Amino acid sequence: MNSIAFIAEQKIQEAMKKGDLTVERWKNRPLPMEDDSLVPDDLKMAYKILKNSGYLPPEIEERKEVKRLEELIAATEDEHVRLKQMKKLSVLLMKIDARRGKTSNITQQDDYYRMVVEKISLNAKPSSSSK
């Protein structure tokens, strides 16, 4: 038995004695499955280790940021703040597209973009220079 396996076995035994490893919680229940079908086979274990450590692949972090910006744009009532967030979203999408070499699905949603621009222009107050 190698030293790592020996240490792991000792830690498991200690946890069982303390009651930290309760079997009742998982008894007769399937373990939760993760959908990793899109991850290449040679990267699955590395991604799982990183995920368990609290790290996410850059693509997932970027998707989270896109989602956060979209929600912020939808919830913001101030047109200036909304426009600023739309510019940030546009820059982020350009970075994603440049890295991948193709356009993302989000940028292809022309109807959504058109509706947002219309809403901003409809809600915008006329400036003193336009009078």
Automatic annotation (TrEMBL):
DnaJ homologue subfamily C member 28 conserved domain boundaries: 7-73
Secretion signal span: none
Native source organism of the sequence: Desulfomarina profundi
Superkingdom of origin: Bacteria
Keyword Protein transport in annotation: no
Entry keyword set: Coiled coil
Coiled-coil annotated residue ranges, if any: 59-86
Protein name according to UniProt: DUF1992 domain-containing protein
Phylogenetic placement of the source organism: Bacteria, Pseudomonadati, Thermodesulfobacteriota, Desulfobulbia, Desulfobulbales
InterPro entries: DnaJ_C_subfamily_28, DnaJ_homolog_subfam-C_membr-28
